[in-house]
Fold this sequence. Notes:
The structure holds two protein chains of two kinds.
Chain A: E1 16-18, E2 28-34, H1 44-57, E3 66-70, H2 74-86, E4 89-95, H3 100-108, E5 112-116, H4 121-135, E6 140-141, H5 148-165, E7 171-175, H6 180-192, E8 197-204, E9 231-236, H7 237-251, H8 257-275, E10 280-286, H9 303-310
Parallel strand pairs in A: 2-10, 3-4, 3-6, 4-5, 7-8, 7-10, 8-9
Antiparallel strand pairs in A: 1-2
Chain B: E1 3-6, E2 20-23, H1 28-38, H2 42-46, E3 57-61, E4 64-65, E5 81-86, H3 94-102
Parallel strand pairs in B: 1-5
Antiparallel strand pairs in B: 1-2, 3-4, 3-5
Amino acid sequence: MARYESLLDACGNTPLIGLPRLSPSADVRLWAKLEDRNPTGSVKDRVALWMVKAAEESGRLRPGDTIIEPTSGNTGIALAMVAKLRGYRLVCVMPENVSSERTAILRMYGAEIIFSPAAGGSNRAVAVAKEIAADHPDWVMLYQYGNEANARAHYESTGPEILRDLPGITHFVAGLGTTGTLMGVGRYLREKVEDIEVIAAEPRYGELVYGLRNLDEGYVPELYDATVLTRRFSVGTRDSVLRTRQLVEVEGMFVGFSTGAVLHAALSVAHQALKAGKRADVVFLVADGGWKYLSTGAYGGTLAEAESALEGQLWA
Amino acid sequence: MAIEVRIPTILRSYTGGAKTVEGSGDTIADLLTDLDSRHAGLKDRLITGEGGLHRFVNVYINDEDVRFLGALDAKVNDGDSVTILPAVAGGAFAFAAAQALRG
Lengths: 316, 103
């Protein structure tokens, strides 16, 4: 049955698609969980819906309330849609020089935008959002990096869907950002599947992104629990771009660059299984499609040009 | 052949500005001790008083996080590439941060 009462009811139940051409052998197979098939086109629809529902159930959110969140990416877009349909006002705080596509999408969904100084980056936007929230005690900040409903969305929906569709799964690979996907799906699969491998693919950015003044300004999301993972890879821009292009060329899937990093790690563990003569069903998560990243120019030209186009950007 | 170690910007004050340095050792701990003999102070920035890796430091051997390979006891071999990086928040919000850093 593919009929739904409303858009929010169509969140999740995304397809799991085989990759017959990229899979190393008949016994070592790759499968893509296509999260771009969610209402606003990313895995974050699950997170936004679960965080809003949790806040409603606990009484934190009441009809007409204002949600404030430091975000300009997929979470902001998903929250803007959920807020519109469930009757909330959304205020997004983001650095003032974010791309115009992002602000246009958010405004289209009805979100309001408060800009924080560009120089302070994400840390500054989070700080500004916290200051504003303190001035408006009735506003609700959902804060995806520390919100248990983020990981629970995947424990209760993404994980069970994957196991239902592929009971023989041996490896799960996803990107590491807020860590919600890996924590939620990882915990669920560890409870249900013996010897499951839970593998993180972390994008490794250009140097500018790591230009912190000292190590104490680093940040690890509150949701992160390393014991859920079995391996963690850092994937550079060049490998991510290469895999992103390979996926569209060989299997016809047009995805965002974070998925290229995830596919790189998935192929690595698949080929290790092949070498070891082991059967493997490797599921990797496609967080979003490529549309929002077209303006980077990194889908065309040489790899070096793409790398340079993404230099200094957090492309995942 | 030696082990190539990539140094993040914020730690290059210990390597005279060098982006990559070379070292040797059987484990990450040995390697860091070896590096510290030529780049004094580097090891203290990476390892806490309790003897573990600093919470906001990630170390990778050939792109894999050493915390899942035995941490400081993780084995290294000649020809390996080791990368040291500070932990930063990623995810959906990161795009804005990148734009901000570029601006």
